[in-house]
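Feature request disguised as a bug: please show the residue count (125) next to Response regulatory domain-containing protein in the output. Example input:
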Amino acid sequence: MSKNKQSILIIEDDGSYRSILVKKLTEEGFLAIEAKDGEEGLNISLEKHPDLILLDLIMPRMDGITMLKELREDEWGKNAKIIILTAIMDSQKIAQAIENSAFEYIIKTDTTLDDVVERIKKRLK
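Example output, currently without the count:
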């Protein structure tokens, strides 16, 4: 990955929301990388080693929890910085994310893009 800009991998199946995140993060000086599902996100993560991963939970082909578990089995992936960004307020999903060392769990409807950016910056310090 480029050492000039910190890279953020956005794993999100909603194309519109993903595009908004890419635009915002690019404006904030990050290198934004996109994946449309967990399977693609896992492959990109293991290939490119982004500085942080924004991970949705409910996606086709491979959901976020499965992707997170598989990522944690990889030597690099054990320590990858992950923020869950989802619309799901399911306590079981939150517990699974925490068990798999997600750094933070953000509910999309309860936060602004500026808040998401601030949390990303905090995690990358």
